């Protein structure tokens, strides 16, 4: 979770900037994904090669794995694949996906904004929720796969509020900051 902290919990939306969930994620440069429609056999050949490369780097490459990698490389090259270029593109894809999931845009940072979402309580004191995650949809992180880290807002609200239901939308107003 990329912690984003809110200072104030407010019911009515003041004339503050509305921060949408999409506006929290940074824009990421587009990239080609040659793996998206690549046949399974070619992906499997690349996996064998990559696994052997990692084993060799760790000093753990045995003869059977080396032979399997040699055969897989031959099949890949016969299919017209540039193995090294594909591995370089894989690294770029992983970097861009990480940026998209973990990066935070500076659009709203250190500004007072209004944001809508659902509270996922983390800590309560005397029946009042004092710490929670603001998430974009009902049940996020509980009943569904979690949203990307830059789509979760960590909220400390010492005054607390009474949680009526996880299915009740809430509106927050506060200063948005980022602490990795």
The first-to-last residue Cα distance is: 9 Å
Which stretches are poorly predicted, pLDDT < 50 over at least 5 residues? 1-14
Following the backbone from N to C, one meets helices and strands in this order, namely EEHHHEEEE
Let me know the largest β-sheet: 6 strands, mixed
Helix content: 25-40%
Structural class: alpha+beta
Question: Helical segment tally?
Answer: 3
Radius of gyration: 23 Å
Residue-averaged pLDDT, rounded? 87
Strand percentage, roughly?
A: 25-35%
Overall, the morphology is elongated
Could you provide a short overview of the structure?
The protein has 180 residues and is α+β, with helices and mostly antiparallel strands. It has three helices and six strands; from the N terminus they run ββαααββββ. 30% of the residues lie in helices and 25% in strands.
Explain what this protein looks like in three dimensions.
With 180 residues, the chain is α+β, with helices and mostly antiparallel strands. Helix content is 30%, strand content 25%. It is built from 3 helices and 6 strands; from the N terminus they run ββαααββββ. Strands 1, 2, 3, 4, 5 and 6 form a 6-stranded mixed beta sheet that branches. Helix 1 packs across helix 2. The longest helix is centred in the middle third of the chain and has 20 residues, at 83-102. It is elongated and about 65 Å long. Mean pLDDT is 87; it is low at 1-14.
